[in-house]
Amino acid sequence: MSGVTPIPTDTYKIGFIGAGKMAESIARGVVKSNILPASRISTAHSGSGRRDAFQSFGVKVHDHNKKVVQDSDVVIFSVKPQIVKDVLLQLRPLLSEKQLLVSVAAGVRLKHLQEWAGHSRFIRVMPNTPAAVGKAASVISLGAAATEEDGELISNLFGAIGKIWIADEKHFDAITGLSASGPAYIFLAIEALADGGVAAGLPRELALGLASQTVLGAASMATNLGKHPGQLKDDVASPGGTTIAGIHELEKGGFRGIVMNAVIAAAKRSRELSQS
């Protein structure tokens, strides 16, 4: 887009407004992947615990968010959704259109972010908690003045913590219901599998280890083999065997419908929160 100053890809600095776990996961991933040296990343926090967490891998920690903004070409807002407006309005006098702004605040729409910031070179990103282990599913939507090059830069950054998809913002409530809330559904499934193993006579530690690894392995197959999950399920379920007996019980309980309803309910709640 004409009139937009490109971010200097060889020397740019990023700053995190908000020094929570998600910001830490992103920063750690960026450093570990050698996308940026820690010396070009900063945040601000007054608490010793969060300061120590970032300083432990070389990130600069300032006393005030204002210094983070002044020191950054890319500013990532990683604060709770209910305070992002106040934070943006407070920092607005310092924000420049030469800077690329990014929000990972759930449920806060680009039109509001752009209004509060005073300019529209903004990108909204929806990562999820597996960012902590480099396995995030992150979706990106570009604001009005964000360029294709801006999108590529942010895709590269967030690629350090997992996989990236680009989508229209209109899909973000559904994305929230699926990938942002989805890890909690899977944790429930792991717990239920382990409980089933215990009920069938396994020691708790063994049951939990088997359940966790089974979910990890199944997800890897679904991601890497290029087969529809229905086909993968059929490959396991031999005629008259143990797996089809278990699947029969899941179907009698409405398993697939319950999971679908969970995604829809979370998406609906996301829509309600974003409109409040």
TrEMBL record:
Q: Which residues bind NADPH?
A: 65
Main localization category: cytoplasm
What is catalyzed by this enzyme?
L-proline + NADP(+) = (S)-1-pyrroline-5-carboxylate + NADPH + 2 H(+); L-proline + NAD(+) = (S)-1-pyrroline-5-carboxylate + NADH + 2 H(+)
Gene Ontology molecular function terms on file: pyrroline-5-carboxylate reductase activity
For the protein in the UniProt heading, the enzyme class is: oxidoreductase
Calcium among the record's keywords?
Answer: no
Q: Enumerate the spans annotated as Pyrroline-5-carboxylate reductase dimerisation domain.
A: 169-273
Could you state one GO biological process linked to this protein?
L-proline biosynthetic process
Instruction: List localization entries.
Output: Cytoplasm
Pathway info: Amino-acid biosynthesis; L-proline biosynthesis; L-proline from L-glutamate 5-semialdehyde: step 1/1
Which domain of life does the UniProt lineage start with?
Answer: Eukaryota
Name a single GO cellular component: cytoplasm
Which residues participate in NADP(+) binding? 17-22
E.C. numbers: 1.5.1.2
The family database entries (InterPro entries) matched by this protein are listed as: 6-PGluconate_DH-like_C_sf, NAD(P)-bd_dom_sf, P5C_Rdtase_cat_N, P5CR-like_CS, P5CR_dimer, Pyrroline-COOH_reductase
- Which keywords has UniProt assigned to this entry? Amino-acid biosynthesis, Cytoplasm, NADP, Oxidoreductase, Proline biosynthesis
List residues of the Pyrroline-5-carboxylate reductase catalytic N-terminal domain.
Answer: 13-107
Q: Which family does it belong to?
A: Belongs to the pyrroline-5-carboxylate reductase family.
Q: What is this protein called?
A: Pyrroline-5-carboxylate reductase
Please tell me the species this chain comes from. Answer: Escallonia herrerae
Source lineage: Eukaryota, Viridiplantae, Streptophyta, Embryophyta, Tracheophyta
